[in-house]
Amino acid sequence: MDLAGSSIIAIASRASARMAGLVLVAGLLAACASNKSAEKLLNPDPPEKMYAIGDALLTRGRYDDAASKFEDLDRDHPYSPEARKAIVMTAFAYYKGTKFPEAIATAKRYTTMHPGTKEAPMAHHIIASSYFDDMNGPNRDQSNTRKALEEFKTLVQRYPESSYAKAADNKIRICEDSLAAHEMHVGFQYLKDKKWLAAKNRYEVVVREYQTTAHVEEALMRLVEVNMSLGIVPEAQNAAAVLGHNFPNSRWYKDAHSLLASNGLAPRENQGSWLTRTWRSLPKLSLSGG
């Protein structure tokens, strides 16, 4: 073999040796990493340390990392006192990171597994707040608004003394106002299209279910309008009477009164009407300041 051929073989041999060395090093590193992972699984940090780390991550705004750490705690120490609270804190970390579906699913898991416990009000609050923060405007789908309202009411009913229940009252009013506004929006669309019966149904929902919202005055006036258009004069007169009794200084009552007067009519209460019975059971309201 000539000199050139010998040199090529020598270079190839050295390259092969280096490659074998690299493969060996990679294998050793992989084995080391695998051993560390196995060691971590067999000897996880104590639950109080894992909880403290998760809490610190949460404080620093590292919400995904915090959720992951709390999930590790729940998995590694499922029977520890910290594990139960870690489920709620996982949900809270997801909520703070605006991962609402994950927050809802995790908090619901807690309320299913640990109803009536110390952290249960917080779990319900996270569910309700996640739906609330993901609500649409009044002219769009209101599914999340309804779910938020239901969950806030559950919170108030089950845990009336909790701090979360006290904070829920205002959110309940906002949800009801949004739902009433949605019914008014849809009702007005029907009104423009002269679909009187469909509009009537929407306005009746407002006066039956959302009586403490500011939309109820207009809803009563619109009932006067649509009932007149449908030829149901007694119901129109009764709606005007209810409106005038509860909101005598409302501009909507003035409009209702004028509409009846233009047809030679006046407000007249019908004591047998569902509308009269419903509003008679309530304290006299004055949302318009009258």
**CA radius of gyration:** 33 Å
- Classify the secondary structure makeup into a structural class: mainly alpha
Helix content: over 70%
Total strand segments? 0
Biggest sheet: strands, sense, closure? none
* Structural shape: elongated
Uncertain segments are 31-39, 285-290
The CATH C-level name of the largest domain is Mainly Alpha
Assign the CATH architecture of the largest domain. Answer: Alpha Horseshoe
The CATH H-level superfamily of the largest domain is Tetratricopeptide repeat domain
How much of the polypeptide forms β-strand, as a percent range? under 5%
The multimeric state of the shown protein is single chain
Name the helix and strand elements from N-terminus to C-terminus, one letter apiece: HHHHHHHHHHHHH
CATH topology of the largest domain: Serine Threonine Protein Phosphatase 5, Tetratricopeptide repeat
Instruction: Give the averaged pLDDT, no decimals.
Output: 87
Distinct helical segment count = 13
Please indicate the count of domains. 2
- Distance, first to last CA: 114 Å
Helices and strands in order, then pairings?
Blueprint: H1 3-42, H2 47-59, H3 63-76, H4 81-96, H5 100-113, H6 120-133, H7 143-158, H8 163-192, H9 196-209, H10 216-230, H11 233-246, H12 251-261, H13 274-280
Helix pairs in contact: 2-3, 2-4, 3-4, 4-5, 4-6, 5-6, 6-7, 6-8, 7-8, 8-9, 9-10, 10-11, 10-12, 11-12
